[in-house]
Amino acid sequence: MTNSNSERPSEFELIAELFAPLATSPGAFGLTDDVALLVPPAGHEVVLKADAVVEGVHFRAEDPADRVAKKALRVNLSDLAAKGAEALGYLLTLNLPDRMSMTWLADFVRGLSEDQKVYGISLFGGDTTSTPGPLSIAISAIGTIPTGTLTRRSGAKPGDLVFVSGTIGDAAAGLAVLKGGHPGLPELEKEMLVQRYQLPEPRLALGQALRGVASASLDVSDGLIGDLGHIADVSKVRIAIDALRIPRSDALKAAGDTQKYIVLAATSGDDYEIAFTAPASKREQVLDTASRTSTRVTEIGRVMQGAGVMLLGAKGEEIPVARGGYQHF
C-alpha cells in the first residue's frame, strides 16, 4: 500500500473500471447516475444499516485488501442478520489516501466481488474521495424483511433464555496473534483466530430462521457483555450470563483457559455473532433452528427483572467486569 496516487485513474475512470461491474442490480444503473432505485418485494419493509471501518481501528494497514473489503461488508451484513433481514445490496464510500495503489484497489474490489456472489447482493452506488488521513470505508447495507417481523432489541422479558451463535473471543485473540501474541500456539490455531478477526461470518440464515422465535436480538460487535447490555437497557430487564457456558473455540482455549481469559473473551469486540433472547417455551425451536441452518447456538443465560448484565461464576457468584465492551469514545 505504498504506491503513489499517480498510478490511479481519475475518480470516474476508477468507478467505470473497478466498481461498475459490481453494480449488478438493474436499479443501480451501472453506476451511471446519481442515485439508485430499490423496490422492495410486496409485503416487505426495507432494513437499513450503516457502519464504517477505519485503518488502525478496525483493521491493520498490513491486512490483505480483499479481506479488508470483506470485513467492511460483512460487519454490515451481520447487523441485517441479527434483525432477521435478507440482504439485497449496499452503498460504498471510500476515503482513499494517496498511497493506495491500483493493485490494492483491484484486490479490494475482488474481495467485494467474491462476497457479492456468496451473499447474492449488488453494489447500488456510493462515493470515492481522497483523504490526508487513514483509509476509511463506509458501507450502508440494504435489506428487506416481511412486514412486521423485525427482531428488535426491546423484546426481552423476564423468564426468557439467552443464546449466542458461534464462538466468542476468537477475533480479539486473532488480533493479538497479528501483534505477536500467543507465540506458543500451533500455526493452524493461529490462522484460525486471525481469520476470525479478518473475516467475520454474518449469520444471515440463522437470523431469518429466528423470526418469530427470538424476542430480542443484536449482533455482537463491541463485546458480548456490552452488547447484551443494550438489550437489557432497551428491554428494561437484567441479564445473567453463565461464564462457563460462553462458547469458546478450542484454539481460544489453547491460548488461555482461566477465568481471566473467559472475561476477556466476553468483553472483547469483533465477534459479529448473534446474541438473542427467546422464551423458555421456545428452547426446542431455537435448537431446531440452529440445526436447520447448520449454525452453532449455545444457551448462555437468562433474563430476569432488574437492570444491567452480570457475569456469573461456577458457584453463582458475580464476576467483576471492568468494562462491558469496546467503546469508540
Helix fraction bin: 25-40%
* Overall body shape: globular
Total helices: the number is: 10
- What is the strand tally? 11
How much beta, percentage-wise?
15-25%
Characterize the biggest β-sheet: 7 strands, mixed
Mean pLDDT: 93
Uncertain regions: pLDDT < 50 for 5+ in a row? 1-6
- Compressed to H and E, one letter per element, the order equals HEHEHEEEHHHEHEHHEHEEE
What structural class do you assign from the helix and strand content? alpha+beta
Radius of gyration: 20 Å
CATH architecture of the largest domain: Alpha-Beta Complex
CATH level-four homologous superfamily name of the largest domain = PurM-like C-terminal domain
The name CATH uses for the topology of the largest domain is Phosphoribosyl-aminoimidazole Synthetase, Chain A, domain 2
Name of the CATH first level of the largest domain: Alpha Beta
Strand adjacency order, main sheet = 6-8-5-9-7-10-11
How many separate domains make up the residues? 2
Task: Tell me what the structure shows.
With 329 residues, the chain is an alpha+beta fold. It folds into 2 domains: 5-146, PurM-like, N-terminal domain (60s Ribosomal Protein L30, Chain: A, 2-Layer Sandwich), CATH 3.30.1330.10; 161-319, PurM-like C-terminal domain (Phosphoribosyl-aminoimidazole Synthetase, Chain A, domain 2, Alpha-Beta Complex). Helix content is 33%, strand content 24%. The chain has helices at 11-19, 65-82, 102-119, 170-178, 187-198, 204-209, 224-235, 250-255, 259-267, 283-292; strands spanning 44-54, 86-96, 122-130, 136-146, 161-165, 216-220, 238-242, 273-278, 297-304, 308-312, 318-319. The protein has a 7-stranded mixed β-sheet with strand order 6-8-5-9-7-10-11. The chain has a 4-stranded mixed β-sheet with strand order 1-4-2-3. Helix 2 (65-82) runs parallel beside helix 3 (102-119) and helix 4 packs across helix 5. The chain is globular and about 65 Å long. The two termini are 28 Å apart.
